[in-house]
Amino acid sequence: MLFHVRMDVKIPHDLPREQAAEILAREKAYSQELQRSGKWRHIWRLAGEYANFSIFDVQDNAELHAILSGLPLFPFMQVTVTPLLRHPSAIREDDS
Amino acid sequence: MLFHVRMDVKIPHDLPREQAAEILAREKAYSQELQRSGKWRHIWRLAGEYANFSIFDVQDNAELHAILSGLPLFPFMQVTVTPLLRHPSAIREDDS
Amino acid sequence: MLFHVRMDVKIPHDLPREQAAEILAREKAYSQELQRSGKWRHIWRLAGEYANFSIFDVQDNAELHAILSGLPLFPFMQVTVTPLLRHPSAIREDDS
Amino acid sequence: MLFHVRMDVKIPHDLPREQAAEILAREKAYSQELQRSGKWRHIWRLAGEYANFSIFDVQDNAELHAILSGLPLFPFMQVTVTPLLRHPSAIREDDS
Amino acid sequence: MLFHVRMDVKIPHDLPREQAAEILAREKAYSQELQRSGKWRHIWRLAGEYANFSIFDVQDNAELHAILSGLPLFPFMQVTVTPLLRHPSAIREDDS
Amino acid sequence: MLFHVRMDVKIPHDLPREQAAEILAREKAYSQELQRSGKWRHIWRLAGEYANFSIFDVQDNAELHAILSGLPLFPFMQVTVTPLLRHPSAIREDDS
Amino acid sequence: MLFHVRMDVKIPHDLPREQAAEILAREKAYSQELQRSGKWRHIWRLAGEYANFSIFDVQDNAELHAILSGLPLFPFMQVTVTPLLRHPSAIREDDS
Amino acid sequence: MLFHVRMDVKIPHDLPREQAAEILAREKAYSQELQRSGKWRHIWRLAGEYANFSIFDVQDNAELHAILSGLPLFPFMQVTVTPLLRHPSAIREDDS
Amino acid sequence: MLFHVRMDVKIPHDLPREQAAEILAREKAYSQELQRSGKWRHIWRLAGEYANFSIFDVQDNAELHAILSGLPLFPFMQVTVTPLLRHPSAIREDDS
Amino acid sequence: MLFHVRMDVKIPHDLPREQAAEILAREKAYSQELQRSGKWRHIWRLAGEYANFSIFDVQDNAELHAILSGLPLFPFMQVTVTPLLRHPSAIREDDS
């Protein structure tokens, strides 16, 4: 089941630099592992913003939340979730 | 080059029913042809809304606008465009 | 799987009265059938508004959309969907 | 009498970790006691957000406020209250 | 139990004048009867707007909704309801 | 002359506790003195929010501002002022 | 007593042209008479918008509302009122 | 050439008190000098808000910006500029 | 003096087609004449929207308003004006 | 390919003054080098705001993002990107 997620990141300027770097490294590893598993199906950066649009393919709402709330950057993110479904005009096999 | 597009459709209730049906048929054909060409890469419906999120892969802004303004439903749509790029954590070949 | 849905109804004042009455009768029957099936788990009216908050228990996003877009009042509604999950502090068996 | 409440939690990143943990433990106990009493009838988490939708069944506005303002997390929450009533199409006994 | 209600009125310019006048006459009678009964405790006009702030004193949410949805102008109003309670600093007997 | 005022209070979490307590005590005394004088005619708490709706009866805009800007909590408030007048349907003597 | 008023005009495109012209002529006469009386102290157009900022000098809220609701264009306006007072840094005699 | 400017001031609560007082004193002197020169033509306080509406009479956009960005309080202000012109119904000589 | 203008066009769907075509033809001629005169210095379309960003170089606010309110599409536009000035980092001769 | 970018700068008041000055100096050099290269085609200040409108001429979305995210002030900016294209009424050679 697919979900569209927008993540906007806002790291406070008084967060110690090493702490921020460590969080970002964990974030990248976490994201790539989920991408390899097929659960984090797409991720794109928005031009000019510290933000991404992502597509998740998960079993249910609970799994989606477990993934998102486990993001190392989660405390510094605003997250917007939109449930998706196959569009009646879609022709691509895997857009559902 | 990738763009994220949100389309919200609002057909006026006093538009004659046959006219609406004819527009919708043309819209579907138009969309599917662009999907087959590879330019309209993804399309998903938003649960509970008369709206879609789409990903376009076009040469430039002008081509994107030509495609969108050519949509039979364009006069009844609110369209929001966001330019995308490859996310530094992305692992999938074709997410850029 | 649970979803929270807010529906705001706005019937155009120039819609013929009998047509409106007929739609409302179908809406009520449609809603009650889904309530009996267990898919439309809760429905509450918002005091002072022509609107409701509802909880749906469906298999997936696609089933939710099929139900919502099938509402006789759907063309006159603004619908907002929020995916839910069990809260870690919940004690009630069926709140998930 | 039923009320719909949305709670959005935002804990400042410079709040000492032990203080946050202690508040969260009290919050959980407080919530579960009210759930057992029947006053906090439902609680659901919103997927991807540090937020919940809840349904309260209280005697009046004053009791609702006493409960909400007594939440250990109240100083870190944005709270939105909506008074509810039985929907004319509802069939479930206890949705009012 | 007290509720604060804001009503914004927007009468469509193509509503026949006599129909509008008849609705407004019924609205005034309806409001004054409820004021005499003590349920519609206060009503003030907002300077420069076709709107009012009102205070209702009702038994519960259901009674409030019955009163508001029975307003002759209800189909042309946007209504915002806020549940009130006695303020801890209030000294006036009847502000609760 | 009547004014409707909404006050939303937001005390920064890093304000020393004793300082906050001292401000709140002064706020209560200040409010009650103005209520006794008849200038602060009504005050109600909004259920679930650290906010109030109030009605002031003052000579002019300048007196209203002097009262509001003198509130001990003023630096931590967002204040919204709406000028009121007698509603043409009002029957209560003192709603103007 | 001074008030700042913003008026945004939106004339429906299906209003007969002669009717619109007649309303506009009355509006101008009405405004100029009030300007001559000193009650409508200033009026400026906003560049690029069918809107004005005005300053009114009236006895009280009720007189302001009588003037504004008597505007021939009132049914086609959105009006925003802000009560003003002398600024502590003002040096001009008549800015209060 | 006239401009309408709204200034909303928000002084951080952790700014040392003497520093704030010194800025405010400079702000007042700066404002009054510009008022005497005729460039800052009007200034009014908004009732209940730490804000003002002002009218500036300057040569061009650049002069306006030089004045505004030179305000001692500028780093703590949100500023909204609206270019004005003579209203076709205006009768006062100096409202343009 | 430079101004940034955003124009959003919304033509009502029940405007007769020939009338719309005639307005659009006049709009284009009007715009191009002003571009040739140097007053309408830039115009760009926004991808996916019936809107443009433009830069005007005019003598003052009054000339800007005369140009904008004279647009054949003006009754169907929402216009947003922002006064500009030379940026301190600009190197291009004619960006002021 | 052209993009319209709005940048709003907000430097925290507790950022050390020398650090801010150093960032601003780098920002200016960075901007002017990109202007000389032709990629940052226009930059204008908004009157009364710590903000600019800019036009970028880049190869693609990725190049735009590289430029924007490399801005020394990027962590303190809110950035809004709008893809542009040649307007059908444009006559100027280089507005595309």
Automatic annotation (TrEMBL), chains A, B, C, D, E, F, G, H, I, J:
Q: Which reaction does it catalyse?
A: (S)-muconolactone = (4,5-dihydro-5-oxofuran-2-yl)-acetate
Name the EC number(s). Answer: 5.3.3.4
Is Isomerase tagged as a keyword? yes
The yes or no answer to whether the keyword Nucleotidyltransferase is present is no
Q: Name one GO molecular function term.
A: muconolactone delta-isomerase activity
The record's listing under Pfam families reads: MIase
Record key words, sorted = Aromatic hydrocarbons catabolism, Isomerase
The GO biological-process annotations, alphabetized, read as:
beta-ketoadipate pathway
Q: Which SUPFAM superfamilies would you find in this protein's record?
A: Dimeric alpha+beta barrel (SSF54909)
Pathway assignment reads: Aromatic compound metabolism; beta-ketoadipate pathway; 5-oxo-4,5-dihydro-2-furylacetate from catechol: step 3/3
Where would I find the Muconolactone isomerase domain in this sequence? 1-89
Similarity field: Belongs to the muconolactone Delta-isomerase family.
Q: Assembly state and interactors?
A: Homodecamer.
> What NCBIfam families does the annotation carry?
muco_delta
Q: In its UniProt entry, what is this protein called?
A: Muconolactone Delta-isomerase
What gene is this protein translated from? catC
